[in-house]
Amino acid sequence: MRRFLATIAAAAVLAFAAAGASAATLTNDDVITLTKKLAGESGKLGKEAEDLIVKTIATSDCRFDVSTEQIVKLSDAKVPVRIIDLMIDSHREWRTRIKGAVQVALQGFKDGDPKLAERSLRELKGLGPDAIPVLDKDGLGSESAAVRAGTIEAIGQIAHRDGLEPVMRALLDREPAVRAAAAKALKSVVEDRAKVAARLTDILGSLDQPRDGAALALGHLRETAAAPEIRKLTDPANSPLLRSAAAAALGLMADRDSVDLLISCMLPDKPGGYNLDVCTAAAVSLARIGDPKAVRPMIKAFERYPQAGARLIGPLSRFRDPQVVETLIDALEHTDTQASDLAWEALKMLTGSDMKKSKQDWRDWWDLDGRKRF
What does the pLDDT read at residue 43? Predict the structure, then answer.
């Protein structure tokens, strides 16, 4: 009899594996599958078969859902009470391990070390959706903006619908960096885009809470229907932070109807209308959109605002245009060393040439051979 049961058990386990169960993780559905296979046509689970399921749970990495709805489902599938109790205990232990693991990972964000933060992100992503309630409570409840921003990035990487409400709340966080992280993470946790877009649009219309996060989120979601409202936020009467977020959102949407507006943000006509962050965001967005009409204004902004030099090299180098090459050659002698170094790297990328950082050498090459080959 024992040999017969062992044969049945082995066949059931093989069938369980063939059905697609993960060798690494045991779930409710896996337990139900084992129960049905081992019970056979009789529908009754013998003690030895029950012991086999108990042993399987004890030696597996388990992720059980023990909500009321799922307990009823397990009972309807005739999973024995003893096994359900074991699943509840396993879930409780898992939650305890989750909390400890989250606490350790959050410390990695607080230390400010990029390598530690990257490791924390990997660990939190590996914990999966079960980590989201703990991240919401402990991570988003932290006084450290770095911890809150890292928490939101982790929720985005977990990419589960349970992360939606924590991310939506973080869009109104008191720190701009956290709001920006939430805007980026939102696209990974959205199920009903229309409803979320409506909520974000409502935030844009509110004057008593931060709106930059919502604007950026609509950009990341590429909700082009919101572009007209976002364009209004670039008005100089608004704060530079909100204007920068709006300009960035229009670029994320690749909204070609906003090219002229973005050019005016980057290169304002009115005295005193210039802001470094707004100029940079507009330039990056123009580079994302890729309209050639932005080249000349971008060069003009580069020449007019030396303090923006290092920030504008990247957007400029996205355009394969002879005027850009000539501007970058001149920038090799920029007063800002960072800008001149970036110009050198951009020149090598654009032209495929690997000359040393010498304006004269680059100018001679360009005049003799480079221009006609570019």
Answer: 74
State the amino acid at position 365 in one-letter form: W
Tokens of 253: 């949407």
Residue whose token pair is 């090598």 = 348
Residue 250 reports pLDDT greater than 50: yes
* Helix, coil or strand: residue 26: strand
Which residue in 203, 298, 186 sits closest to 246, CA to CA? 203
Whole-model pTM: value is: 0.80
What confidence score (pLDDT) does residue 372 get? Answer: 85
Reduced to 3 states, what is the DSSP secondary structure of residue 62? strand
Q: Angle at Cα 132 formed by Cα 92 and Cα 53, nearest 5°?
A: 35
Asked whether 362 and 355 are in contact (CB, 8 A), the reply is: yes
> 201: which DSSP letter?
H
CA distance 269 to 298: 14
Q: Which two tokens stand for residue 204?
A: 């844009």
Q: How confident is the model at residue 17 (pLDDT cuts 50, 70, 90)?
A: very low
